[in-house]
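Today's session is about reading a structure prediction critically. Students often jump straight to the picture, but the first step is always the sequence itself: look for stretches that repeat, for charged clusters, for runs of hydrophobic residues. Only then move on to the predicted structure, which in these notes is written as discrete structure tokens rather than atom positions. Here is the chain we will use throughout the hour.
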Amino acid sequence: MCLSGVIPNDNYPGGDPTFYCEETAFEKLLCAIYSRSYTITNVAEFMDIIRLADFYRSLPMLSASLYAALWNSPGFIVGIPASAASLLIVSQKLRHPVLFRECFVHVVSRWKGPDDTVLKDHPDLCHLITASQLNVSKLVVAADHAIMLNCAKSQTKMPDKIFQIASVLLYSSRPPLETSSL
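Below is the predicted structure for this chain, in token form.
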């Protein structure tokens, strides 16, 4: 924490958790503004910080300090997959590329369509997610097709070929194998 004398999460002052959450969020926003290190405990706390930063017009400063805070906040990182859609909207508002990409990957992987309750009011994001999911599907189909063709040409066991092709795709920094050598 950036300021001394912080009360642990389970001991609310005066029994009012709302007051404690507001105070903690404001403290962490001040840490972001004054370039002090801070950690984000969970997604709810992050949403409170964002709300206050938006109110005080300090979203750019919060976004700039978020790189270090993400690195030092394992509790927040664990909560990203469950809240990816709402965090995607917030990360777009923050213009934070790392958080946006992280949330985007989770949203695309679970995308069912633009009827999502959180994202239905954001048609630009829905279009981007749908287009990205289509591109990923095209790549998967192309890889499946290449695997099947190579297996049919060489008439070898399917798992061996899948392992060889998958290793080439995973380690794409190496030059790709020619299809005739597989």
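Discussion point for the tutorial: The mean pLDDT is 79.
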